[in-house]
Design a protein that fits this description.
The complex is a heterodimer. Chain A is mainly alpha-helical. Chain A contains 3 helices and no strands. Chain B is mainly alpha-helical. Classes of the chains: A mainly alpha, B mainly alpha.
């Protein structure tokens, strides 16, 4: 039996990797994947708690999140492609049109 | 009684109608609105005069204008003998001048505007003379000043006219500032602005003093001097006379109405109205008399050598106003008002006559370029003669009676009066001289203008000559109500009529002295005319010789004692340079604009710094977000 804290730690590690990837990487695709990592870290902790508490609610929530994440990924990539057609770059540093 | 309210209201209504509908609808029929209105005022004024003559004094409050604590000012009218005389003078002269203007202003593009302002002026002047309190007087006072500004600058597209209008307004401000302070001081002293209250309480404040910068000043004297400041400005006395000659830039009917017959007499009227106050202050009275006496000779001496027909008459006005103040100053209030009344007729006549000449010569005003107009313009010529004889003080004519009365009262008015009498007598000589110099140069001799002008010479239309004839009757006959008792028992009807308001004239003297004064004044008048005759008709080279010989004097007089230049150097230029350098250059540019522009500049500069954090880099925002989350988590964990 794997204790709950292991799951939570895994979730925290995955989340931190996501955050650090999001903050440090310059490639927009990687940044995007990092966001997905953070979402999935949340999913891990939800499933873990659901199992621990013997409640199905957490797992239902996870399905919702996966669905939303899929839709979000589709829209995000679509925006990215639309952007790329106008500005042929995927480097985050060069995407600074909103600079004050 | 209430119908007398219409006396000022009729011209006001005419003004409103003309100013609103004039431009688009009434246009060159504006006189159909204004002339009946002012004639209506005249008829009512005569009715009021009759009422007053039968012994009634009308004093009604129509409306509570301002109420604030103890400060209570009504709009109210007082019609007593003094007001009645003024009403007759103002409305009769205005009526004639309005009619004259129909001819003179014919075809002017501002015709309706002219009649509108003229009506507004008559309204203001009537309010001024009819008011029963100081504040309404002040209102009328400022309103006539405003109208004067409008009318002097009537041809505002001419720069000199626009400047003259400004000059008149600004010079008057100097006097009116004092006048305003005087009115305030009246209220502070008496707690009321109504004449009846103020004048009946005047005795109770004798000897009271007021402290100014540590000096104790007699309150009554101070009030009188402050009020007199206003009179000096409005009535163009030394040292604020400079605006009146320049005011001749306005159309001639305006010069006649405002700058000879009515507005400039407001100062005289006001001092006469306040005679219960002035009589209590010897200092103020002496000041009035000296200013008047000195101005009379000062202005007359300038008039001797001027060449602009209207300016000569303007200086003559200043000089005659000086006479009136001299009379007021020696306590002969009714003599001053009497002269005001006769002067109004002959001076309006002189101006309208000169207007007729200018009209015939197509705006030529230099008398050196006139001459020989007698045979072309007989009506103008003979009425001009009547007015000039009157102003020169030829026995039997209006000017003789009033001027003689003033000279006699000055002579009888003690030591200072004796000196002022001497000045005034010399001024009388000058008056006769310059009046007839004007006549001889304008109407006699050969025509000195261009051929084209000569070809077009013509007498003015009858709408202009008929008012001249009426005024000539006034210039001859208006003095017959004030024949001195020396010549006719109870001849001084106007003096007796005014006595309830102005009191009996002061001063003692024997009959012999009175004959002497009268004889001398007639003599100097005739001598003046004779001298002018010799110099300008017989030996025409004489003026040039004299001018050569006394070049310094001639230049001094011709340049009007350089008063304008003096004011320009000492007041106008410093004020202008202070305005330009300090007000405009420093205060306005640095302080006002500094604040106005400084605030947005500061915000702008701050934003410039602040916008640096808006890098547009996604990762920077993400860091900020992550740090924010950390801070919140930290707060949740550690700051329970």
């Amino acid at each position: 039996m794997v204790p709950l804290s292991w799951y939570i730690m895994l979730s925290a590690v995955v989340f931190s990797i996501g955050v650090i990837g999001f903050l440090t990487r310059r490639n927009l695709i990687i940044v995007f994947i990092s966001v997905e990592l953070m979402l999935n870290a949340a999913n891990i902790s939800l499933v873990a708690f659901s199992h621990y508490l013997q409640s199905i609610k957490g797992q239902i929530m996870v399905f919702f999140i996966i669905t939303v994440a899929a839709a979000e990924a589709a829209i995000g990539l679509a925006i990215l492609i639309a952007f790329y057609r106008n500005n042929p770059t995927i480097k985050v540093d060069e995407i600074n049109l909103l600079k004050g | 009684m209430l119908e007398y309210t219409l006396i000022p209201l009729l011209p006001l209504i005419a003004f409103v109608i003309n100013i609103i509908f004039g431009r688009n609808y009434i246009k060159d029929k504006a006189h159909w609105v204004s002339v009946p209105a002012v004639i209506g005022s005249f008829v009512l004024a005569v009715a009021a005069f009759m009422d007053v003559q039968s012994g009634k004094v009308i004093n009604i409050n129509l409306y509570r204008w301002i109420v604030s604590g103890d400060f209570n000012v009504p709009i109210g009218f007082l019609i007593d003998p003094l007001t009645a005389v003024m009403l007759i003078v103002v409305t009769s002269i205005s009526s004639l001048i309005f009619i004259y203007s129909i001819g003179y202003m014919h075809g002017d593009k501002g015709y309706y505007r002219f009649f509108a302002y003229l009506s507004l002026f008559v309204f203001s002047m009537l309010t001024l003379v009819m008011s029963n309190n100081f504040l309404l007087l002040y209102f009328g006072w400022e309103a006539v000043g405003l109208c004067s500004y409008f009318l002097i600058g009537f041809w505002f597209d001419k720069k000199s006219a626009a400047n003259a209008g400004k000059k008149a307004f600004i010079v008057n401000r100097f006097g009116d500032f004092g006048f305003g302070l005087g009115v305030i001081l009246v209220f502070l002293t008496f707690g009321s602005l109504e004449y009846t209250k103020v004048f009946s309480d005047a005795g109770s404040v004798i000897g009271k003093t007021i402290s100014i910068f540590g000096y104790e000043v007699n309150t009554i004297t101070l009030i009188c001097l402050l009020l007199f400041c206003g009179a000096v400005g409005k009535s163009a006395q030394l040292p604020l006379h400079v605006w009146l000659p320049d005011a001749m830039e306005g159309p001639t009917p305006v010069s006649a109405l405002i700058h000879a017959a009515t507005m400039v007499t407001a100062g005289v009227f006001m001092v006469a109205r306040c005679n219960p106050l002035f009589s209590l202050s010897h200092t103020a009275m002496t000041t009035v008399a000296v200013v008047g006496g000195v101005t009379s000779i000062f202005a007359a001496s300038i008039g001797l050598v001027q060449n602009d027909i209207k300016r000569i008459i303007a200086y003559s006005t200043v000089s005659q106003l000086g006479y009136m103040f001299l009379a007021l100053g020696v306590g002969a209030y009714s003599a001053g008002i009497f002269h005001l009344y006769t002067h109004a007729y002959f001076k309006a006549l002189l101006f309208l006559g000169s207007g007729s000449v200018i009209h015939a010569l197509h705006d030529e005003m230099n008398i050196q370029k006139m001459g020989g107009l007698k045979k072309y313009m007989p009506v103008t010529y003979w009425t001009f003669i009547a007015a000039s004889l009157s102003i020169a003080g030829i026995p039997g004519l209006a000017g003789f009676f009033s001027k003689d009365e003033i000279l006699w009262r000055a002579y009888a008015g003690g030591d200072a009066g004796r000196w002022l009498w001497l000045l005034a007598t010399i001024a009388a000589f000058m008056t006769a001289f310059y009046s007839f110099r004007l006549i001889f140069l304008t109407f006699h001799g050969k025509f000195r203008g261009t051929h084209e002008q000569e070809h077009h010479l013509h007498e003015s239309p009858s709408v202009m000559t008929i008012p001249l004839i009426f005024l000539a009757i006034g210039a001859v006959a208006s003095g017959w109500v004030g024949i001195p008792p020396l010549l006719m028992e109870h001849g001084d009807r106007i003096g007796e009529f005014l006595a309830p308001v102005l009191g009996p004239p002061k001063g003692e003297g024997s009959h012999a002295e009175e004959w002497m004064v009268m004889g001398l004044s007639v003599f100097v008048g005739l001598a003046g005319i004779f001298t002018a005759y010799i110099m300008y008709l017989k030996k025409t080279e004489l003026p040039y010789k004299i001018g050569e010989k006394f070049q310094a004097v001639y230049k001094l007089l011709y340049n009007k004692y350089w008063i304008d230049e003096l004011y320009d150097k000492t007041i106008v230029r410093p004020v202008l340079s202070v305005s330009e350098k300090i007000i405009l250059g420093f205060f306005d540019a640095k302080i006002i604009e500094g604040v106005v522009n400084g605030v947005p500049n500061l915000i702008g500069a701050f934003s410039q710094r602040l916008r640096k954090i808006q890098t547009g880099m996604l990762s920077h925002y993400a860091v900020a977000m992550a740090l924010g989350v950390l801070v919140i988590i930290g707060a949740v964990i550690f700051l329970k």
